[in-house]
Amino acid sequence: MPEAFKNFIGGKWVKSKSGKTFENRNPADTGDLVGTFQLSTEEDVDAAVQAAKKAYPDWRDTPAPERAEIMYRVAHIMRDRKDEIAQLMTREMGKVIAETRGDMQEGIDTADFAAGEGRRMHGQTVPSELRNKAAYVIHRPMGVWGLITPWNFPVAIPTWKTYPAITTGNTIVIKPATYTPACTAKLMEILDEAGVPKGVINYVTGSGGVVGERLINHPDIRGISFTGSSEVGKRIGEATGKTLKRCSLELGGKNAQIVMDDANLELALDGALWGAFGTTGQRCTATSRIIIQDGVHDEFVTELVKRVKALKVGNGLDESVQMGPLVSEAQLKTVESYVKIGQLEDKAKLVCGGKRLVGGDFDKGWFHEPTIFDEVKPDMRIAQEEIFGPVLSVITVKTLDEAIEVLNGTVYGLSSSIYTQDVNAAMRAIERIEAGITYVNGPTIGAECHMPFGGVKETGNGHREGGWTAYEIFTEMKTVYIDYSGKLQRAQIDNK
Ligand code: NAD
């Protein structure tokens, strides 16, 4: 019997006022109903914000180390439930079980980091220019935050937002993507069991157009943290700009891996395979372009095609499967349309894959062959637009300068990588690549939770998730002066 999920508001699991629900099905096997979820209304969002607002003063006044202590328990429960929730995640959005375990592990690491960070929450202390006067900066919580998340990291991304938001003393309302509400519901269960007080965390499921829009426009919400497409991100930037809410946007990417003639090709091939086809290419940091120096092009492409053809595609619950389905029929159609664009409009050379997988168990879900286009020019649509699927474009260049120019030639700037043995080339690339993340001799994917994560240009609005930077996003900075001289001291006047 599939689980009937409810909203989590003020510490209680409750039904939506709409009386309506929606279904979520396994993309590898659409006969498998993962669960039913509340199709929520604006009224439900208002009730959740109200609960978060009510819980805020007490939570704000709880010492940060005490708040953070709950995170140790959260990490502990997540470890106990790692495999169970990984299985659910694979059923919910399709990525293979090794990766969904990794997604859970990232959430565990994020909880461990939050547990420690609550004892730090560093401010700064500097000397005052006046005698008998102290000057320092502290970070204070802000109030109620709205968190809006995508489906490709159903546990990791909600934890990246929720854990720093509440550890710093805010209360939250989270709206997960409609493809992955079950995993976020499990996260609420864990936080509740670990002892997060009623109303500090609230969870409302439903569409972006109703639940998401109400959150971004709600007068009692102080900040929105959003991860998703650039299209929706721009809409959120516009709405939150009107009311001057704090707004953190982590958006799309068109990431590239540069391979120089002197690269260790084995390593570069391993990186390309994992970067392009891990999570079926549905990562914001997925390798979508290989920019290769002409001297190694033929050898690299021949070998890559061989390896890609050998990839085992199927239901991610099977431990031997290396690539799962697309998350939905719509995402599969997007991939099919880009393959057509690559062939008919761009006229690139299809060297492997290119078709939907059919027959047998493939007919139960949304599977597509891992696909490579060669002879791609930097301005072609398949080299410019985010596809979010298992489609890789190979672009050939002559020099490092040309490689960097091609890499920088899109509107996005999230992740990047260069394979070379030449330290001078690597250093030049690190300095000149326009991206939030650069890997040397590693693929474009592989973020660690204690490091800043985010991008430049249309990948975001300059904020960073992860690490200590997330703790700055979720807090207001307060500058404090304490004058203990017992007299009026006029800055810039009495000390001169
Ligand atoms: P999406 O933008 O379609 O949806 C993201 C979330 O926004 C969902 O919860 C959705 O319901 C909600 N939403 C939709 N319309 C809304 C509106 N008008 N107001 C408020 N909320 C609304 O993205 P997706 O398909 O879930 O995820 C894929 C995208 O996310 C890709 O572009 C990918 O690159 C990006 N992504 C970025 C990062 C990053 O950190 N930079 C990480 C993961 C995914």
Please characterize this protein's 3D structure:
By secondary structure, this protein is α/β, with parallel strands linked by helices. The chain has 2 domains: 3-251 and 460-480, Aldehyde Dehydrogenase, Chain A, domain 1 (3-Layer(aba) Sandwich), CATH 3.40.605; 255-440, Aldehyde Dehydrogenase, Chain A, domain 2 (3-Layer(aba) Sandwich), CATH 3.40.309.10. The protein has helices at 42-61, 64-80, 82-93, 97-117, 156-167, 181-194, 208-217, 230-243, 265-277, 297-309, 329-345, 381-384, 400-408, 423-432, 467-473, and strands spanning 3-4, 7-9, 12-14, 21-26, 29-38, 124-127, 133-141, 144-148, 171-175, 201-203, 221-227, 246-250, 255-259, 287-293, 349-352, 371-374, 391-397, 415-419, 437-440, 475-483. The strands form 5 sheets. It has a 7-stranded mixed beta sheet with strand order 15-16-17-14-13-18-19, sandwiched between helices. A hairpin with a 2-residue loop joins strand 2 and strand 3 (12-14). The longest helix has 21 residues, at 97-117. The chain starts with a strand and ends in a 13-residue tail after the last strand. The model has no long low-confidence stretch (mean pLDDT 97). Bound molecules: nicotinamide-adenine-dinucleotide.
- End-to-end separation in angstroms reads 78 Å
CATH architecture of the largest domain: 3-Layer(aba) Sandwich
Adjacency order of strands in the biggest sheet = 15-16-17-14-13-18-19
Structural class: alpha/beta
Main CATH class of the largest domain? Alpha Beta
